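Work Package 3 (structural annotation) set out to generate three-dimensional models for the target panel prioritized at the project kickoff. During this period the team completed the workflow that converts sequence records into discrete structure tokens, so that structures can be stored uniformly alongside our sequence database. As a representative example, we reproduce one entry of 232 residues exactly as it appears in the project archive.
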Amino acid sequence: MKKINFLLMLLMLAFATEALAWKPIMIGHRGSRTGVENTEQAFINGVTKHGCQALECDVKVTSDKKYVCWHDDIITTSFGLSSNCTIYTNTLATLQSKTLTQTRKSVKYTGKICTVDRYLEICKQYDVIPVIELKWAVGINSNDMSRFPGLYKLIEKHGLVEEARILTSMQPSLEYVRTNYPKLQCQYLCYEVTQARYEWCKKWGINPSVQTGGLTKAMARKCHEAGMEVAC
């Protein structure tokens, strides 16, 4: 899937031949392009500079079981570090001692790794929807969700249980969330909604989040008729 700065969630998707009875919700992908991705600056700018109504982050777990916003297991030297830094083998304090840099649109930004706690605080402060993507992490993956309860406690702490969206391509993880935390809304990240995926989403009460090239008019309508919201 191409890296893009913004994801467009289309709630109750309509098409050009019909009256447009929907309003798109803009989601800041990894916060925004204004700042180091997945950092506090990028999240805040996603709202204040780009007008996003939702913010997406990726979740990883540190060696001392703290939750941070980062896409990969490793913070690479491309973010200005002298050597690669693996998140799950380092403490939060060690990770936050490092200054990250990223050049975007010819502008060089600096920032520190952001905790999920702070990310949720920002979502609450600016009244935006948290879209929390689960990447394969220690204790949060298809085989082991033992550290998800700690993540849920953070969501609960900020009073965002009903607002938060849990997004992932890992079906077993979504089944776990739907079974154990029924108030959380879930989105299944996929390239297209096949019939099998449609049936699975319908069974589990999960909304599809589809790559633009894989979303068809017919399937979107079919999902809507089944009571699903379609993200794109």
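The CA atoms of residues 75 and 85 lie 5 Å apart.
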